Amino acid sequence: MADDKKHAEIDAALVRQLAEILNETDLTEVEVERGELRIRVAREITMHAAPVQYAAAPAPAAAPAAAAAAPVSMPSDPATIVARAGEEVKSPMVGTAYLQASPEAPAFVQPGDKVKKGQTLLIVEAMKTMNPIQAPRDGVVAEILVGDAQPVEFGEPLVLLEA
């Protein structure tokens, strides 16, 4: 019983340390494994947090025009939101997205392509492992939301599928 209490105290301290690491860095998750003990701490980043951070930051004298233009790029227009209606295929991991198997190869898919469930849409490389991201259902690729060789976060939308 005393052993269990000791492990719980160690775990709490480790969780606090991992949370501090997340707060001090741009990481969205961190995982530690010690023997049979495995702890993963993650945080969710929302799209609404970024504009607030930028608005609070002091800007140079020439920046007010650029700051005023920034909200225009956000999808606040209802027509834009409707145009992006569909199912987002999200990244299951942190890594780098690649739109083709090699630099010389054609892209796995293009906007407008019909895809079948299980068809590879792109790959996400994580820790030197290439992970195919497959279509969750039959559909049409409405939009590819990431660029080739772009870093991606866990849960980040990669491809937009329509029926």
UniProtKB/TrEMBL annotation:
The keyword Nucleus does not apply. GO terms for biological process: fatty acid biosynthetic process. Residues 86-162 form the Lipoyl-binding domain. Pathway: Lipid metabolism; fatty acid biosynthesis. GO terms for molecular function: acetyl-CoA carboxylase activity. PROSITE patterns: BIOTIN (PS00188), BIOTINYL_LIPOYL (PS50968). InterPro entries: AcCoA_biotinCC, Biotin_BS, Biotin_Carboxyl_Carrier/Decarb, Biotin_lipoyl, Single_hybrid_motif. One of its GO terms (cellular component) is acetyl-CoA carboxylase complex. Gene3D superfamilies: 2.40.50.100. Signal peptide: none annotated. Keywords: Biotin, Fatty acid biosynthesis, Fatty acid metabolism, Lipid biosynthesis, Lipid metabolism. Coiled coil: none annotated. Pfam families: Biotin_lipoyl. The keyword Lipid biosynthesis applies. PANTHER family: OXALOACETATE DECARBOXYLASE ALPHA CHAIN. This protein is a component of the acetyl coenzyme A carboxylase complex; first, biotin carboxylase catalyzes the carboxylation of the carrier protein and then the transcarboxylase transfers the carboxyl group to form malonyl-CoA. This is Biotin carboxyl carrier protein of acetyl-CoA carboxylase.
